[in-house]
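Example 3.2
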Amino acid sequence: MIAKMKKLTFLIYYKEYERFLEELRDLGVVHVVEKQHGYMDSDLQSVVQRISVYKNTIQDMRMRAGSKLSEQVNKEANGEDIISRYEQLLATLQNVIQKQTIVAKEYAQMEVWGSFEWKSINRLSEVGWEVNFFSCLDRQFDESWIKDYNAVVINSKGGKIYFITISKTPVELEVESVQLPSKDLMELAEEKKALDIKLEECKSELVDFSAANCTSLSYCLSKLQESLELNKVKLSGESMAQGHLLLMEGWIPAENGGTVEEFLKNKDVYYEIRDAVKEDNAPIKFKNGAFSKMYEVITRMYGMPEYGEFDPTPLIAPFFTLFFAFCVGDAGYGLILILLGAYLKSKVGKSMKGMMNLVMTLGGATTILGTIFGTFFGVNLLEVNWPWIETLKQYMVSSDSLMYLSLAIGVIHIIIAMTVKAICSTVRYGFKNSLSEWGWLLCVVGFVATGGLMYLERITPEIANTAFIVIGGISAIGIFILNDIRRNIFINIGAGVWDTYNMATGLVGDVLSYIRLYALGLAGAMLGMVFNQLAFMIDINIPGLEIVGDVITWIICCIILVFGHALNIAMSCLSGFVHPLRLTFVEYFKNSGYSGKGEAYKPFATIDNNKE
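Structure, written as tokens:
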């Protein structure tokens, strides 16, 4: 649900403005309305640029730290010092990499010539003999060079010949003359080894520094963002009385109204507090129970509801859980998710514990629904004769019924969405302006209920036909005649016809979209079954070493099972998140009229006293 909000209006003397804002920030519950003035001073621009640098550095540090990331925060740390030191370490690393690249290139050049000492070459040069290095294609080498220039072939590699000439006069050949590095192969090898060790040391130092300081830098980023928010709020004051007074507006949750009023009574500030109305478009603060709270992240992904609108989270929560469990549909995979969530919850920080609770909840739902579907790590429980499973078989559903179940769930989900739309429209615009929504709701619910009762033979076809006529007639009044009581009746009829076309084509497509739940669940079960069959098809027989063959068989079998089911779990969970998200965002939100254009409640507070 959406928390009730109160609107605040402040009138502050300009000399008290900054001190009042700092005290208001320490209070940590007021959402200040930030007004755009169309400009940003140089100080504000500098803060924005530094925030960008902080974010990029933190992202890079997190990637380097990996699982070594420390959760400890040093609140006295200086963000600029951390970034400066990190950039120094990066520069050192890049310098080593550059040197390593050069040495590796020189080593590759020298490697084809083998190991020799430049001292020997220099001694020859001192006594008048000149040594030149050449390379050419095999077909270009002339055997006469051996006699004429004392040519010596050093190496032949990749269709090329590497050779030297030793002569007392300069040698000019129509082949490539090679300029070699000034260090011999042994020196380059030692330098290459030293640089490899230095590179690992730099990488290790960078990882350790990132792991130890990334969380502290994140805290510094939050403080920098606080500074930005404070400056933006300072610019939000509307100048009045020739600049002597500043007018500000804000919002607080109704539950914090007493605290804020007590705070303002002790200040030299004129203020006014009143209850927010739906026309105010107040910021949204969720106030949900523990179960629904885990799914608020899904609502936020699409967009916040408007004030006075219906919070979709309590309805998203059970259906998203059901859809996820339907898509994964394996009791064994559900148990893995529960264990994985419980393990990670003990390892992650406080901010991620809520996400791990969601993983365990989805795992629990998957375990229950997977048991009902009769699937356990790809094994069809309806076909096995395990003693402990016999009592559960009476509660299991065959795969033939799952398609109809998925369609039934889709019909119910869409009907609930249409009900929400009709109720919200009535609350916001009045019953007279919502007759079209109620007409469509009556039409869909009435036709589905009548058709269902006739299919179950609870009513006769004659009664059903009469019910269809009555329900259709009443619905048509709202759909075609009273869809907008302020318009001409003929315009309403035309609009109703167009609306009928859109509803008829849209609803059919929307309902059929829910078949994906059945298809994904079936695909996951079949893939799990295939991995089981592949694993137990392995049979390695080594004559005379039957025990060894059995051990190898079981090792390969376990590898296939672990790898196959791990891959299937990953794929099932991915589809179990994406497709329920699509059914929620497209089918449900479209039919419920949800727009997601609201603004989230964001209290003006420091990182240490944020009440949200």
